[in-house]
Amino acid sequence: MPASSPLSTPIRRSPWRTPLIAAAALGACALAVAAMTRRAERSFPPTGRFVTVDGVRLHYKVLGSDDAAQTVVLLHGNGTMAEEIEISGLAEQLAAHHRVVLFDRPGYGYSERPQTQRWTPDQQAELLVEAFAQLGIERPIVLGHSWGALVALSMGLHHAERIGGLVLVAGYYYPSLRVDVSILSAPALPVLGTLMRHTVSPLLGRLMWPLALRRMFAPDRPTADFERRYPVWMSLRPSQLRASASESAQMIPAATAMRPLYSSLKVPTVLVAGADDRLLSTRWHSSHLHEEVADRWLRIVEDAGHMVHHVATGQVVAAVEQVVNLRQARDEPAAAVADPVPIPAPIQ
Asked: Which domains does the chain have, with CATH numbers?
């Protein structure tokens, strides 16, 4: 009797089968991501202008009259683009009285982000201040939201003579324990991060988008305008995911490096934050910074979260007008300054 029959012979599978299946799956993901990226850019072409500073091409948009006495610059947070602030209605309301300039920060929207630099808040601030000079923007009021607040704060600390004042909205200013940083930073890793950005990360990001959106807007619901108008896939392009992941990795080190300088801030500054921010602690960040900075005011908006400029746009507009008035009073101390809009009393 034979030792074994054909029916009992084990099936030998190729050792390459699993790697080949994985490679095919990643290849399919890469094709899908490339197609979605092309579709997003066709559906949402650049609508603003471009300026090149030190070899870096920046995309920006201008609203309001070029003859306005005051220019207000708006800087978005991590993971979004200038369109996010425009959707809030903030730029449109400010443009009724001022010239408003919205920038896509390096790596976001249609602004470049060369990989030869880390693009810390200080590096971004220096680049943008040079862009101001090229565009003839003199001593603007700079409003930064979230990560953009760090860039605006760096301008106030290192380029005070070229800045008229600051409005810092829902910013991250002090190091804190963040368990999400390692996860959010992964797409910035060499090799592995590149693979992730071009394959699984955009697809996972799209699946997680509704949850992330609810957390950003909590305790409010995402606004109907944001859900309808924001080009989600523009934020999920591999290039923008790299910028976002890099800034997530830099968040704690950047705040640590800037913290010793806060007491030297001399430009008029108004801080705005939602009392119920679910992404960061308003008490630890905005309230804490309010205690350290000399020429500053604080507006805490009740029942608002991280996207306070979407759900309490009027409060943020009032903060900008307050800084405009403070700057005018400082430049012309003997002149009576009229408020362009009613301004609720800030929390001192």
From this structure: 45-331 (3.40.50.1820)
